Amino acid sequence: MNSSTTYALPLAATDAVHETVGGKGAALAEMIRAGIPVPDGFHVTTAAYDAFVAHNQLQPAILAAIEAADPEKLASLETASRTIAELFLQGQIPPKLAGAIANAYASLPRTEPVVAVRSSATAEDLAEASFAGQHETYLNIEGAAAVLDAVKRCWASLWTAHAIGYRARRDVNIEGLSLAVVVQRLVPAEAAGILFTANPVNGRRDEAVINAAWGLGEAVVGGEVTPDTYTVDKESGEVIHRVTGAKDIMTVRVDGGTETEPVPEDLRRAPVLSDDQAADLVQLGVQIEGLYGEPRDIEWALADGAFAILQARPITALPQPPRRGLIEWEVPNPRARYLRNNIVELMADPLTPLFATLGRRVINRTMHRNVTEFLGSPDILSEETIVTIHGYAYYKGEFTAGQILQLLGGSVGIMRRMFTGMEERWREARERYDETVHAWRAGDWAALSIEELLSTVSAVFAVAIDYYMALVSGVIPAAWMTEGLFRAVYERLIRRRDDPPSETYLLGFDSKPIQAEKDLYDLARWAENDPDLSAHLLQKPAREFAVPTAFPPSTVDEAVCREWEQRFQRYIDRYARTIYDLDFANPTPAEDPTPIVQTFKLFLSGGGTDPHARQQALEQRREQATQAMLNRLQGLRGRLFRATLERAQRYAPLREDGLADIGLGYPLLRRMLLEVGRHLVEAGAIKDRDDVFWLVEEEITRTSEAIDQKQPIDPMDDRVQERKALWRTRKRVTPPVSLPLPPRWLQKLLPGQFQASADQAKRGLSDVITGVPCSAGRVTAPARVLRGPEDFGGMVPGDVLVASITTPAWTPLFALASAIVTDVGGPLSHGSIVAREYGIPAVLGTGVATVRIQSGQRVTVDGSTGTVSFEER
What is the CATH T-level fold of the domain 191-314, as seen in this structure? Predict the structure, then answer.
């Protein structure tokens, strides 16, 4: 073999093995030899890297830079990395090596084809595990000179700060380190995504799951877009289930690289793949799975109607396949009841690994302590009340006959303790929560170790759960009971045919979510006084609102711009410390103010309803109705009406105020956990600090101990990516609201009432779903299915908001919505209360809305009958 052959190999070369072309390159070579449609290209071998380093005499300088780096200090590692990168970029590729690469590039079809240049880690001892995912990839590279430059940059990425620190802490000999590079024709993808050749939710090996989005695949792999999801029977190729995602952005080619841009409006709600295309892709996946003998996680691209395979990895986190049929929602204890209620309503999505361990541990411990103190008995509530089933949180209701008798016998005392001093108890808990957060926020917590940070997070989160328990042990049940009692008294004993509905008497009060809307409206009215500022803000992306502008646009007076930023920040400080979900992996509105900004822009552009006028009208209507009823009623019925109404009116606003403050500590908790993530990045355990949320607590503590004891660190990048993929697929499942499920014959008789999931066929189901009528009115409009903050950007004025559940952080979206539909909830839920304040129809507690309804589908919501009708797609 001559030297040029050593430096560059055809992609399918039989001697393209791990030692010469790295792990990624070897896998691509194996697939292309098996006839899999892999884009053409070539390998730049490890011998090329070695020749470049030797020609430029870089090894002494590399060793010197490494020697000067302190593995415990990220800044020092970054300095070493920059020094080495500069050496590589200044180095000259020897003519014979440059010629080999240029000739291999010239041998590709077409003149100066556009290519992707990807690093491929070698399979030396520890190397593949250590460096997977850390080296660079360059897309949309054109011309021999640009290819050579990209290859040098890939070589330089062997020496990232992450990799240097990992090797130093693990005492890895760097003398023999090398890196291969794969150069492939870039597929001008119209669409791209991921294919799992086994169902990562239920483990079924006879099903495949496809994620698909427009453009190149980076947005899907990086989790930046909600893709379409297809579940396909591998044998027949039949699409069992399809969910069309809110594909708002796409990755596209630009000169010398890629960037994200908005998806054209006509494609956002359009399915990416036809059923035939999905079947064809799955057949390719079956071939690849057969080649390796195990399920694979495959990256694919579609161009000119043909599929190309870009990468294939093993799926190592698959659950065991079910023994039969649908997802097996097996419960830990068949005698217990598992419910999606109580605190679980604030955990609508599958739990991320860190919250499922650390967060759930704190919740269970704190709930058990609170209930024990409140009831005076440690045996009433299980020490593990919140459990997970298929990644979803469930509230375990498990009571023995003795416990039930104990609760019944002490019910009078329990009720007395619950309602005695409940407002004071709630306000005191809120004050403790705020003081705890303020004290830690002002302290030097950034200097804490990983173990100390985790301990502090547990302590602060426990105070947050104490606050929640103070709410649910008094104010919230008082609001539920008093409103329910008033409704019952009014509807059964007082109301006549022409009298207003009961909610008329409970509307028009102030609460923190309503005050937030009014202040946002006032902020928009202030901004519209400056036309230049107004025009700038209407064009500014939502995520950029949370970041001060370094250089104000030339069209806006700088003083006005700074005044605006101060006003917006004051608004965020007051109202954005709330939560979309209890899982602290989710950003707070302070970090991602998308719904706030959308509503602000609606007000700024002259849309929406003046919340001051709306509230005043509701208040006048309430007062007039109340006075008219008091004038009419006499005696016992008058006293009963007044007494029940006064109590209901007193507690309803307190409930919303209380719920809005659950997230007081979340900005601090997230900063602390991201600091843990930073430590783990420096240690080489993960690639990005946000990946900390995808580790379980025990993995973090084990890594912390290894760091302290100067022991080897196990990198967990692959594990993180697998868990993210599993979470995304699980999120497409709507969990049953109650377990265990009824007999299978009853599930088949009433499909969709007990289980709605990605493997549930939709054919034959009724075109009407039912829920709880929570706010009167009837609206026909396009649906917008929102599964979380990542989908909020797709909401436009007039859409029907469809979600699993809404929390106070979702309230700004109500100003855009024409109606509300949820999987979970009832007449006394947050969504119901706020929908009535906004005067829009609401149907809650459907159980299946987020599965049965697709974004863009026209639906008719009848908030009086509790029905949602639509045409199946």
Answer: D-amino Acid Aminotransferase; Chain A, domain 1 (3.30.470)
CATH superfamily placement of domain 761-870: Phosphohistidine domain (3.50.30.10)
C-alpha–C-alpha distance, residues 172 and 190, integer Å: 43
Question: What count of Cα atoms within 13 Å lies in the side-chain half-sphere of residue 43?
Answer: 33
For residue range 325-339, list pLDDT tens digits in order. Answer: 446 677 888 878 888
Q: Which uninterrupted H or E stretch holds 597?
A: helix 594-604
Q: What angle do CA 819, 821, 826 make, to 5 degrees?
A: 115
Judge whether 166 and 160 are in contact, CB under 8 Å: no
pLDDT in tens, 568-621: 999 998 988 888 889 999 888 888 888 889 889 989 999 888 999 999 999 999
Enter the DSSP assignment of 215: B
CATH 3.40.50.300 fits 3-185, yes or no: no
What is the band of 412 on the pLDDT scale with cuts at 50, 70, 90? Answer: low
Tokens representing residue 156 in the block: 């330089």
Q: What 8-state DSSP symbol labels residue 650?
A: H
CA nearest 207: which of 223, 196, 222, 191? 196
**Could you tell me how far CA 158 lies from the centroid of its own chain?**
31
pLDDT of residue 478: 87
Structure tokens at 859: 């639906």
CA angle 591, 594, 599 (to 5 degrees): 135
Enter the tokens of residue 501.
């509905």
The 3-state DSSP class for residue 656 equals helix
Residues 6+ apart with CB under 8 A from 691: 677, 680, 716, 717, 720
Residue 101: partners with Cβ closer than 8 Å, 6 or more residues away? 7, 8, 44, 48, 93, 144, 147, 148, 151, 183
Cα(643)–Cα(500) distance, rounded to whole angstroms?
19
Q: Closest Cα to residue 546, out of 594, 493, 579? A: 594
Helix (H, G, I), strand (E, B) or coil at 412: helix
DSSP E strand boundaries for 113-238: 114-121, 137-142, 179-185, 191-196, 207-214, 228-233
Q: Taking a C-beta distance cutoff of 8 angstroms, is the pair 503, 840 a contact?
A: no
Helix ranges restricted to H, 751-872: 811-814, 830-838, 849-852
Q: Where are the domains of the chain?
A: 3-185, 191-314, 506-662, 761-870
